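Now for one record:
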Amino acid sequence: MDAKEVRGCTSCELCHSRTNTVFGDGDPDADLMFVGEGPGRNEDEQGRPFVGRAGDLLSKMIVAMGLSREQVYIANIVKCRPPQNRTPTPHEVQTCWDYLRRQIKTIQPKVIVSVGGPATSMLLDTKKGITSIRGTWHEYDPPGTDGGPIPVMPTFHPAYLLRSYTKENRAKVWSDLQQAMARLGLTEPA
């Protein structure tokens, strides 16, 4: 599976309003993978995930971890922008799910950080809200692999932080990222 296959997808209504598909970006051998909800306007225009204001904040978060965007892999649950940046419907999520599942199987990250409620709900097959499950480890057990379950650390979406940029929320996200760093054996940069 590759970006070309996704570009040709017409399996749901999102294909009619997209400018570009947004497959994923980063190191295909990354130990750390970030999974978000879906592309916004900037991502749709550029064909890359997390490139708008939320993407700038995600990049800063990654740098604070002592990494660069080129050292991680970033993908979304859905590969096409929902109109007006609305939350993807269950049908749209289910339609795109196989693409993300195969991305995870190919990349085989050691840790996944799910950003936001929709991405977390899909990865963990849960109805619990992001506020109640962020900051605690969960597992995604990819079907058809021998590697076993992948640890998942849910955290707030950078777009949420931009709307609610409080010291408390920033501390929660940093704590989540520190847990991911510890699981990967990374130390905080000086």
The longest strand covers residues 150-155. The mean pLDDT is 92. The domain at 13-183 is CATH 3.40.470.10 (Uracil-DNA Glycosylase, subunit E).
